[in-house]
Design a protein that fits this description.
The complex is a heterodimer of chains A (355) and B (298).
Chain A: H1 13-17, H2 23-43, H3 46-71, H4 79-96, H5 101-120, H6 129-148, H7 150-153, E1 159-161, E2 166-167, E3 170-171, H8 175-197, H9 200-210, H10 212-217, H11 222-248, E4 250-252, H12 258-271, H13 276-304, H14 310-332, H15 336-349
Antiparallel strand pairs in A: 1-4, 2-3
Helix pairs in contact in A: 2-8, 3-8, 3-9, 3-11, 3-12, 3-13, 4-5, 4-6, 4-11, 5-11, 9-11, 12-13, 12-14, 13-14, 13-15
Chain B: H1 2-36, H2 43-59, H3 65-88, H4 96-117, E1 134-136, E2 139-141, H5 143-165, H6 167-177, H7 179-184, H8 189-215, H9 228-235, H10 240-260, H11 262-265, H12 269-284
Antiparallel strand pairs in B: 1-2
Helix pairs in contact in B: 1-5, 1-8, 1-9, 1-10, 2-3, 2-4, 2-8, 3-8, 5-6, 5-8, 6-8, 9-10, 9-12, 10-12
The chains are: A mainly alpha (355), B mainly alpha (298).
Chain lengths: 355, 298
């Protein structure tokens, strides 16, 4: 990860496939674990920890979307709707049946996976633009159904309050406790994705992305793998929605509108399509962006506009910056932050003797 | 029974006229897709931008309406040119996802800019055509919708003539059909790309003026763009006639759904029904009613 090897000296397949190519890689991973599990939660202020928590939730969603868009090449503009499916499933189970989170979380994910596979059915016949519009339709239809069915949405406000998750009879309330809760799932999602994409399933996904007709000819069951991709991706989205619900203590459809779908697409494009590390970078970057804008804008608030306008100005600036970043990365660096990171690493690989 | 028929007629007429106004915006999408294969997810934002330009120019004292329309036209045509040069040309040959995301990003920029630069409040864009509704039997249409219908039909006629009869139109059809062969025949492909974008800018500008004066100009005007997709999918992505017929069907469906279903389900079917129709259409006719079938080869 952070080490610099001086060449390739592998003499066996076992060495080539090893998870830790050099002993130092083991230490890097250990250092990252210590940083995430001990240093950050103990040293950061509550507010910064809450930002980190939001990033962790976004990581789960971005990884899922990247499996679908980055690895399988099927675009989805309706991912926020799958999140809302997960969120409302878990909220209803938690409130009406008093189920603990370790039941509602997979239940929300599975429900989202089912709905996601359903929305993914058109992908068997159509692709590209048509699929984008079909998933957009999925987003609008799911949103409308949730909003107009009191049995799902819990009445006029279309929001359900959910108690915070409890573990061994102990309720997780503070940001620090929630941090560990969310970190567990973010790490789990990352490891799962890393393993999916290098398994048989992941290879099939990549083959479909590169040319689906060719993939079919070499014996990949397109029907199964396209729907599987939608299902896996939506499962992640559902889990992400459930995490949002538990984190905020409320399931509300307004948190899962079309703008959120586009935020997640922005994450994986800015981070890098078809890359696990890129999804993580993108999720963190996009979550931090509005906070950074607010930090910059607040001192200017008195000069150019009243502080009452601040929130709308921040929202608009965020939109503009978002758009600029998406276009910038698409035109200039299609592989995103992940590529920038690799460039930096490659530069330092032989530094300071680069010739 | 008689009441039912009268009610249905009123709904149908208003639906059809709104539908034609959707067609006007959808034409912009179809023209660009037909000629350049680029997908414009920011069509609604184009309309919004045109509305803002027209409203801002009209707010200048003593400015005639025609000035605002000309300004909107000029800005939209220049803007479309620039967009093609700066954003879409570097993306030529890249996956569809890239083009879609680039235009989504552009849409985000366009939606974010007005509140920062000129203020986000709703502006009126009043055209001197009065607002006494015109009745046709039980249906009553505001004059702005009549104007929208006239403009759409005019453009449909113009574009039909252009594509079928004029030299440039035939050249553009050649470009749409096969860019390399068109180039070999001595057609300046880049010039026709620019022309297609200029035409899209023109219909967006007029769409912006008409929709803006009907709904008021603010950021939400861009939501009209969401109706473009059902229209073009239903009609076929690269068919001018398809955009008009798709618009009529979507307008009708929307109006009838709002009239008959809303009382039972508590509102909102207007935004929902067109997409249901679209999904069904996608299942049975993935290339729409008049769209070209594409055969993919490995």
């Amino acid at each position: 990860m952070l080490h610099r090897e001086s060449g390739v000296f592998k003499t066996s397949y076992a060495a080539d496939m090893a998870l830790y190519p050099l002993p130092i890689a083991r230490w890097t991973v250990a250092a990252i674990i210590v940083l995430l599990a001990v240093v950050l939660p103990l040293s950061l202020h509550e507010y910064y920890l809450s930002i980190l928590n939001l990033s962790l939730i976004a990581v789960v969603g971005a990884l899922g979307l990247n499996i679908l868009v980055g690895y399988t090449g099927q675009i989805s503009v309706g991912h926020a709707a799958f999140m809302s499916v997960g969120a409302y499933t878990a909220a209803n189970l938690a409130v009406h049946l008093h189920l603990p989170f370790w039941v509602t979380l997979p239940a929300g994910g599975l429900m989202a996976a089912f709905i996601g596979a359903l929305v993914g059915i058109p992908s068997l016949r159509i692709k590209g633009l048509y699929l984008a519009i079909a998933t957009l339709a999925g987003q609008l239809i799911i949103e409308w159904i949730i909003n107009h069915t009191p049995a799902i949405s819990g009445g006029a406000q279309a929001s359900i309050e959910v108690p915070r998750p409890t573990l061994w009879g102990y309720q997780l309330k503070t940001q620090g406790q929630l941090y560990y809760f969310l970190l567990f799932f973010a790490v789990l999602a990352t490891l799962a994705t890393l393993n999916i994409v290098r398994s048989r399933i992941g290879r099939a996904f990549v083959a479909i992305r590169d040319q689906d007709i060719a993939a079919e000819i070499i014996g990949i069951n397109i029907f199964r793998y396209k729907l599987l991709s939608f299902a896996i991706s939506s499962f992640y989205a559902g889990v992400c929605g459930v995490l949002y619900t538990y984190y905020f203590g409320i399931a509300n459809y307004e948190a899962f509108q079309i703008g959120v779908s586009i935020d997640y697409l922005a994450m994986i494009i800015i981070g890098g399509l078809g890359s696990v590390l890129g999804s993580i970078f993108g999720a963190i970057f996009v979550t931090m962006l509005p906070i950074a804008i607010r930090l910059v804008m607040e001192p200017l608030a008195g000069m150019f506009f009243s502080s009452g306008e601040l929130s709308s100005i921040v929202a608009s600036t965020r939109l503009v910056l978002f758009g600029c970043l998406i276009i910038f990365f698409l035109v200039v660096e299609p592989e995103g932050l992940n590529r920038l990171w690799r460039n930096i690493r490659n530069y330092f690989r032989v530094w300071p003797f680069s010739y | 029974m008689w009441d039912e028929i009268q009610f249905g007629f009123a709904l149908a007429v208003s639906g059809l006229s709104i539908g034609l106004m959707y067609s006007l915006i959808a034409l912009g999408f179809v023209l660009v897709y037909k000629a350049t294969d680029a997908i414009n997810f920011a069509q609604g934002e184009f309309v919004m931008l045109a509305g803002f330009v027209a409203a801002l120019v009209l707010a200048v004292k003593g400015m005639p309406v025609i000035g605002a329309v000309v300004a909107a036209l000029a800005v939209m045509i220049l803007f479309s040119f620039g967009l093609e040069r700066v954003v879409l040309r570097p993306l030529l040959g890249r996956p569809v996802v890239a083009v879609i995301m680039a235009t989504i990003g552009l849409g985000a920029i366009l939606r974010g800019l007005p509140p920062i630069t000129v203020g986000g409040e709703t502006r009126a864009l009043s055209l001197p055509i009065g607002d006494t509704p015109i009745s046709i039997w039980t249906a009553s249409l505001p004059p702005i919708q009549i104007l929208g219908v006239i403009v759409t039909l005019t453009f449909l006629g113009l574009f039909t003539w252009f594509f079928l009869k004029s030299r440039m139109g035939v050249a553009m059809r050649a470009v749409a059909d096969n860019q390399q062969v068109a180039m070999a025949m001595g057609i300046n492909v880049e010039r026709y790309f620019a022309l297609a974008w200029a035409m899209a800018g023109t219909v967006s500008a007029l769409g912006g003026v008409i929709w803006g004066s009907m709904l008021g100009v603010d950021v939400h005007l861009a939501l009209v763009g969401l109706k473009v997709f059902p229209v073009v999918i239903l009609g076929g992505l690269d068919s001018v006639l398809g955009a008009v017929i798709g618009g009529l069907i979507i307008g009708l469906v929307e109006s009838l759904a709002a009239g008959y279903l809303d009382p039972y389900v508590g509102g909102g079917t207007k935004d929902f029904a067109p997409y249901v129709v679209m999904i069904i259409a996608l299942m049975f006719k993935p290339y729409g009613m008049f769209g070209t079938h594409r055969i993919e080869r490995v």
